[in-house]
């Protein structure tokens, strides 16, 4: 019977796998042969891969598996996996000693670029279902250069123009709403993402007093359709937009220490919806003793209405001439009537006249509030329908703290049959959205109102909520601050897209401000948190004048400390009384 003996097992006293250097068999001299680390997952490749050439054309290594030869810089594989032991210098690799960079068995030069542009179909008049230059079958594309789907394939890489003057958008920068002087001191910089996290719950306000006269809203405007459009008329009325410090009623309330902070609903709504704003703005803040006044500059951004501020491609102003080459002829980008400045003035004109026109001054009779209009003097023009309600909101964080803000709010009309307007019942604010040219740059992809407003109103509203998110949020906040029951929004379009002087009313929508704020995702608690944060920053500073500026090109606001005489000489030269009459 054959005998069987177990083989000799050489134990490794040093620990680990494999034989140790002390008990290696003498017939196998492994001591002088270097050890190359390997992984069990590595696969055996070719002994010599002549197709695997380095950037200089020479063979990188012979005898290593092809997967390791094809590693990228730093030993990384092309598929992103790290080759085991690639960081260790391999002694088994063989390199050519002589310089043979000019010799190569395989032509590794790149293919010459084709003359065909990316995204174009093959030749003129590509057949239906032909191939494009990227090798994808363009099924259903008709021929014809420049035709829909035949001349250019918009979905392919590098094909077609993606937008209006995309190459020039990054170079455009907006100017600040106010010239920041070198002497102004930056006190605080707050990004919008930090403002969006603030919260403060504020209870129902206290009504102090009311001023002005209100006319009844004309209900026939609710029945206007695109087929029964009504022309927008020029109504000669006076409406005041006086800043906070110049309000005689607020001056009386401040002398009685009614509140700590004083502002108007126009200024406060911009501050409460600051994270939505794109265009620049500025608020002048004056601290006198323990009182804080939020003011606006005459002729500033608070006196006009923006258009498509939040659109992906908002309206642009003409590019200023090149100072280095004044003789350079610039191609006009958009018609003059469709620039951002022209559209803003047009929207302001539409808002004012729609509010003046949509009220009935005869029947039902107008309602006089507790006091007459505090800003009306010796003017001969009749007053517009407007009521001012002075309300106090409590922003205190505890019962021991006293932090109240007095706000002058505005309402534009009253709704008959919903209660006594003197008691704050049946009040309404009136605004207007405007359409200029759905095919123009800056339209934001808005559909044609005459074709879609009656049949697909939801699509029109959704587009306006996207393109004018900041403007609609400000209008909603103003209505809530004033305690209005309804917000009336008119849809006003140009009679001719090329004429910005004639407009028609296509429809009118009614909505409750609280419900509309939920649709817009407007948080009043977040707005009050922003107001309280800015108030705390200013109350920590000494008495003086400060300016809160929205950066024209970045989502942030900055608080500056400025001299007390800032903007005073400017107002005297320009005439502040003229800008107050809107």
List the helices and strands and how they pair.
Elements (H helix, E strand, L loop, with lengths): L65 H4 L96 H4 L15 E7 H4 L10 E9 L1 E2 L12 E2 L16 H8 L5 E4 H8 L9 E7 L2 E5 L44 H18 L1 E2 L6 E2 L17 E9 L9 E8 L1 E2 L12 E9 L13 H4 L4 H11 L1 H14 L3 E11 L2 E13 L1 H8 L3 H16 L4 E7 L5 E7 L5 H7 L1 H5 L2
Parallel strand pairs: 5-7, 5-11, 13-14
Antiparallel strand pairs: 1-17, 2-9, 2-10, 3-8, 4-15, 6-7, 6-16, 10-11, 12-13, 14-15, 16-17
InterPro entries: eIF3d
Keywords: Cytoplasm, Initiation factor, Protein biosynthesis, RNA-binding
Family: Belongs to the eIF-3 subunit D family.
What is the structural class?
alpha+beta
Strand content: 15-25%
**Considering DSSP H and I runs of 4 or more, what fraction of the residues is helical?**
10-25%
- Record the strand order, biggest sheet: 1-17-16-6-7-5-11-10-2-9
Provide key terms for this protein.
19% helix, disordered C terminus
Description:
- The protein has 582 residues and is an alpha+beta fold.
- It folds into 2 domains: 31-106, no CATH class; 185-313 and 334-580, no CATH class.
- The chain is 19% helix and 18% strand.
- The strands form 3 sheets. The chain has a 10-stranded mixed β-sheet with strand order 1-17-16-6-7-5-11-10-2-9. Strands 4-15-14-13-12 form a 5-stranded mixed β-sheet.
- It is found in: Cytoplasm.
- Belongs to the eIF-3 subunit D family.
- Residues 1-23, 57-83, 105-170, 303-331 are annotated as: Disordered.
- Residues 301-315 are annotated as: RNA gate.
